[in-house]
Amino acid sequence: MHPIRPLGVLAAALVVLALPGSAHAASITQQFAADSGDACHYGTTSGTLGWTYGTTSPLPVSSVAVKGQVSDRPLPTDPAAICTSDGYSSTATFTAYAGSVEIEQQSRTADNGTVSFEFTLGKSTAAAAVDRVVVQVCRNPVRTLPPSYCGKAVTYLAPPIA
What we know:
The protein is mostly beta strands. It has one helix at residues 4-18, and strands spanning 27-35, 43-53, 61-72, 88-98, 101-110, 113-121, 132-141, 149-150, 154-157.
């Protein structure tokens, strides 16, 4: 076998891989959840993070699609004895980072109910790749000045791509 033939096959394969439209962005979905940290779990959020990877190597995350809901108790379906209304609302905050730099933050609030949401983090910043999203639920007084309080911030790292 001529040593030139394997090089020709390799060169042809590289040309095909470099053609426009041949690269496709990969996406991985990850579940998320966080709560307000109090005994009643007055504030909760849950849903999915859809990590979209770019088309260049080593496949940086180009955006994260966030879909879920935030709930604040009491809910209309809660038994009366579970959690009484306390005059606070619950806010779920989602913060995307690239290293130590905050890229984007979005939040959604519910008061004695559930609010569904769907948005994308990081799609407006082409310069930095998202490497993690931090989710936190905080409770804030509806009619008075703070004090407010927050549950533990939960960090979700960009999943590795195989």
